[in-house]
Design brief:
This protein has 187 residues and is an alpha+beta fold. It is 17% helix and 41% strand. The strands form three sheets. Strands 1-2-3-4-6-5 form a six-stranded antiparallel beta sheet, with no helix packed on it. The protein has a four-stranded antiparallel beta sheet with strand order 7-8-11-12, with helices on one face. Zinc ion (ZN) binds next to loops.
């Protein structure tokens, strides 16, 4: 399997920080995208009615499904990342949402019209870090995938950090994701 990476313009947020990775697999060429600005992700199997998209929709939270965008025939969703040793990043609605207004130009008349912000768009990134479980407590956290072993870390749900929806990069840095990606590239 070979891999190459480059940055492209993100179809979701138009920033130029969208990572495109190309893999040659047994099934042919696979492309994946992850935007470091908006955190949206897709891959070349996410076409309408595809098995890949069906599976994703089954496994994905309603809130993430609601944020779906379609570009060039591919479905894009905000990513959700879990790294047991480091923590998690996931999109979450903004709490205590106040009804806010924004102005949108009417394409026909050119007049600015007041519009209520769609609550579903009012979301951001939550970062939860993994913390070590004290050795004497580890027996309370059995690892279901490896019977007889116990988790050494847990998600510190009391210490959440919130990031703006266009600050995925900051959220990823907070989690230490980049150290991980460098390790992968060196392989
Ligand atoms: Zn983007």
């Amino acid at each position: 399997m070979t891999q190459s990476d480059k940055l492209i313009t993100c179809p979701c947020c138009t920033s130029d920080a969208c990572y495109e990775s190309e893999f040659t697999t047994q099934d042919g060429l696979l492309k994946t995208w992850l935007c470091m600005t908006c955190g949206f992700t897709s891959n070349s199997t996410m076409t309408k009615d595809s098995e890949g998209l069906k599976q994703t929709l089954e496994l994905t939270a309603e809130m993430i499904k609601d944020l779906r965008q379609d570009h060039d025939g591919l479905a894009w969703f905000p990513t959700a990342i879990t790294m047991p040793e480091k923590g998690m990043i996931f999109p979450e609605p903004n709490k205590n949402i106040k009804v806010t207004k924004s102005f949108v130009k009417n394409k026909k008349t050119g007049i600015m019209e007041e519009k209520e912000v769609n609550e579903k768009q009012d979301w951001g990134w939550t970062v939860v870090k993994a913390i070590p479980i004290p050795e004497e407590d580890q027996k309370k956290f059995p690892d279901p995938r490896n019977p007889g072993t116990f988790y050494k870390t847990k998600m510190d749900m009391k210490n959440l950090k919130r990031f703006d929806k266009l600050s995925f990069m900051d959220a990823a840095e907070e989690l230490g994701m980049f150290a991980k990606s460098i390790e992968i590239n060196e392989d």
